[in-house]
Amino acid sequence: MSSPLERLAPALRDMVLAATGSHNNALGHSDSDKKDVEEWIVKATAVDLRNDTYLKQLDEVLQSKTYLVGSELTAADVALYGSLHPILSKLPPASYYSTPSITRYFDHIQNHPSVRSAASSSSDLFPPLVPFDIENAPKVERKAEAPKKKAKKEKEETPATDAASTSTPAATSKGDPAEKKESAGDASKKDKKKKEPKEKGKEAAVGTPAAGKKAGGGGAAAAADAESSEPVPSMIDLRVGHIVDIKKHPDADGLYVEQIDIGEETGPRTVVSGLVNYIPIEQMRDKYLVAVCNLKPANMRGVKSFAMVLCATSKDGKDAGIELIAPPEGSKPGDRVYFEGEQYENATPIAQLNPKKKIFETIQPGFTTLSTREAAWVDAKSGSVHRIVTKNGPCVAPTFIGASLS
Fold it and tell me: Which parts of the sequence belong to the TRNA-binding domain (predicted)?
């Protein structure tokens, strides 16, 4: 079984061993600690730490941590320190003040006795100290919450409502009390009827074929609950697609217009992707790929796109290349693509992602390719790694390691 340290670049691996003393000490003591250390190493080396969204998520995670795993220095800490150094060393004070937990954690690790001792004996491996002007950091302003007046307001409004209702012609007119009671009942029924269509509309929205498919007992109710909760990757509807036709966009030189079969009775979906300058059309024809199927349809220079092709972008940027994420052999159009992990495997995707909630944008910074080229999502808060798989196995990039996915 390969060591998680093999994921590290040689210089960073030597740095880890120099600071932690030995291979065994570097990886933690218990099986649980070893698993956590490995996940943090993947996260520290595979995720783009320059991404502002990811840095903010990491800052939240580090608020309560002295060390990433357990109560002592491990390979995870040195790996993250090594990955953060080239970023933090170039930041002006205003920038590192905005991520105080990262700054506090990084400064602690760089001044750790083991790290400094190793640095003094092998200066070629360890980068110099990053100076932080902590004393002049701006104070965090904490605004007290305004007192809640809602309950009081409701109490004040209730008598006025009652008074208004008793002063209506129906209430003050003379007549049979039974008739008044009946008319009140009719009004209640009308109100009820007005509310019913809205509720039915909600049921229809979450009960569409995309959201209503049950995967191990998920169901439409699970999708409805998911939409109102914190964004998680299982909200994204990924499926195997097959390009059955492709041509260049008539009004945009950089865009392809593809017809992608994703196993729907209505036929292939029209998909527009900006891959002309990165993947030759010959390499796109007849390809099997992973499609993001529940984004809101978008108009791309006059052609409506009904899905997105999932691609891997080199860690060195677009100019270094973009590749299609490929499903495993034996895949068929429409095959479900999901994230490993009990909390995600059987969850039902949302029928259509709400652009205002930025669910995909929140999850996307954690998408990456591992050292095995397998596509995965790394949880910024826990460091856990969840491969992107089908029933036939993992989805992979042809060559890229440490790529971002979008």
Answer: 232-338
Q: Which two tokens stand for residue 122?
A: 């092998």
- Quickly count: other Cβ atoms within 10 Å of residue 157's Cβ: 10
Q: In this structure, what are the phi and psi dihedrals at residue 312, rounded to the nearest 5 degrees?
A: -105, 125
Cα distance between residue 81 and residue 97, in whole Å: 17
**Distance between CA 216 and CA 284 in Å, rounded?**
33
Predicted pLDDT of residue 9: 75
Same domain, 377 and 253: yes
Sequence length of the chain is 406
Residue 175 has pLDDT above 60, yes or no: no
Give residue 346's domain range. Answer: 220-405
- Choosing from 121, 153, 176, the residue where a domain stops is 121
pTM > 0.70: no
Pure H helices in 236-325: 281-284
Task: Report whether 338 contacts 377 (CB < 8 A).
Answer: no
Closest CA to 401 of 8, 3, 2, 5: 8
